[in-house]
Write a structure and sequence with these properties.
heterodimer; A: about 190 residues; mainly alpha; Arc Repressor Mutant, subunit A; B: about 250 residues
Amino acid sequence: MMSELDDDLVARAQHGDAAALEQLLGAVRVVAVRYCRARLGRTVGAFTTADDLAQEICLAVFHGLARVRGPLITYMYGIASHKVTDALRTAGRTAVLHSLDELEGRADISPGPEDAAVAAELSAQLARLLATLPPQHREIIVLRIMVGLPAEQVGAALNLSAANVRLIQHRALAQLRPVANEILSEVNP
Amino acid sequence: MTAHHDQHTEPAEVQHDEHLAHKLATGQPGLPQDPLSILLAACRDDIRAAENPAMPLLANAAHVAVRGHRRRTLLAIAAATLVSGGAAAVVLARDAQPGSPLWPITELVYTEHADLALIRMALGDARAAITQGRYTDAQIHLDEAARLLTRITPGTPAQQLAAEIGTLRQELAAHLAAPAQQSEPASQTPGARAATPASAGGTTGAPTDPGSPGQRPATPTPGGQPPVPPGRDRPQPGEQQRTTTRGSSRPPR
């Protein structure tokens, strides 16, 4: 799926190949959903807010597709990271109102209490892990492991060489190991 | 390039972590059972759960459409797309079908085209349901098609679709009437049928068994609606859900 963001597919989509465009937007959507879910986590037990933002990212990529000249992942990541940053900033300002809105409007689509608790716990643990990392390290872990992009595409997104991505990834994982040990020892004392 | 190669880092360690990252990224088996691998794999699986490449896009469009500010944002993007270099791509979206990644664009930009596509799909589903003897499903699909048809501007396509709905309603009515007549046991008297408890209430018949002996004959309903056999006059919850979740996500105009 991730290799479908390649230049050839983008070129065919830009020249009006409907099948290529569908295939490309399907791949874009997977990347957008995973990225937004990893960065935003769950809201009231569901990924709905993250998925809505992913939808906006897909439409924005669709909107600008004709103007893309370099790797699509670079263009897409620029949009996605800005939208997620904006969403986090807005969520910080309107956390209480947002929660009320979610509770009133979406209670019916939330998972059951036990599932919601487990899912919320996982989201919280990921957020805790990622919060210990500098921004660039965090983005590499998110794009490489959570989204599933190869190191080359992560590098294209972040303007780094694949070798540097692997090096920073190594440092980030080294930094995360003691935090993970701590989290699991709290869960299973 | 903002990072530099660290001379003090052993390449083997970097490669070891790259192998780990690759397994985590691709979901390959054989992960080490250390806390970090376990935690990252669990978070990865949580993020990728219920991840359908096509349909959630449509489902999400439903959420987006009912919230005013988001809908306005999407409409603005779609409108901007029309006047920008993406116009050729928007033209492609005109022929997208439900489930396609382009479908939300179709719904936002080509509103009536989207409704026509949904009606045709509902009619196709109704036809298939009649063929397979799922008459309640067929009824639901036809009702959905008729509901969507009220949003279409009067004209040739609307007339053709209305005629097709009428034809399928008649076909459905014929199917519903036929099994009830055929199921009349030749040796059974009217009095004997009336004495059967199940035939009196008609609520114990299986929903998928319109021609069961002992059920009262289906009767036509006012307004040309197809007759509904006993025990099948209400859609099953699952059937109704299937129809409404695939229908247009826009609020009524």
